């Protein structure tokens, strides 16, 4: 992860710690949109996975789930990420951060299976 991304994540971590979940979620989305527009999938993946983890661990399943789905659909699928250990481990780490009763969790699992079957 680059120093720029680490700094971005640290800023959003502070927002989350302050309880500004919506603001952090929206900032993650805006930042990722820029990386995706530039086809910088690696940076987008770093921001999305870290953002999803931070929000999910803060009990913000909807926001964290949204970023997790973006990671799968906008980075892994559109960026044609291969199904290797590193990529699977990143998804499994995000999956493990979901609470068992979070509605987005089931969709995330289905999308993970779909991605792994394609790549």
Q: Spell out the helices and strands N to C.
A: HHHHHH
Biggest sheet details:
none
Outline, from the CA principal axes?
A: globular
Unreliable stretches, pLDDT < 50, 5 or more residues? none
Distance between the termini: 24 Å
Helical element count? 6
Percent in strands: under 5%
Structure classification:
mainly alpha
The level of helicity is over 70%
Number of extended strands: 0
- Average pLDDT figure: 94
* Rg from Cα: 13 Å
Describe this structure in words.
- The protein is mainly alpha-helical and 119 residues long.
- 80% of the residues lie in helices and 0% in strands.
- It has six helices and no strands.
- α2 packs antiparallel against α3.
Note the main attributes of this structure.
about 120 residues; globular; mainly alpha; 6 helices; about 0% strand
In short:
With 119 residues, the protein is mostly helical.
């Amino acid at each position: 992860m680059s120093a720029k991304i680490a700094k971005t994540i640290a800023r959003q971590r502070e927002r989350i710690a302050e309880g500004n979940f919506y603001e952090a979620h929206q900032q993650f989305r805006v930042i990722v949109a820029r990386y995706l527009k530039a086809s910088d999938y690696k940076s987008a993946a770093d921001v999305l996975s870290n953002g999803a983890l931070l929000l999910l661990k803060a009990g913000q399943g909807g926001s964290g789930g949204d970023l997790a789905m973006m990671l799968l659909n906008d980075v892994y699928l559109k960026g044609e990420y291969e199904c290797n250990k590193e990529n699977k481990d990143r998804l499994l780490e995000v999956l493990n951060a979901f609470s068992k009763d979070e509605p987005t969790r089931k969709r995330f699992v289905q999308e993970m299976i779909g991605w792994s079957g394609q790549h």
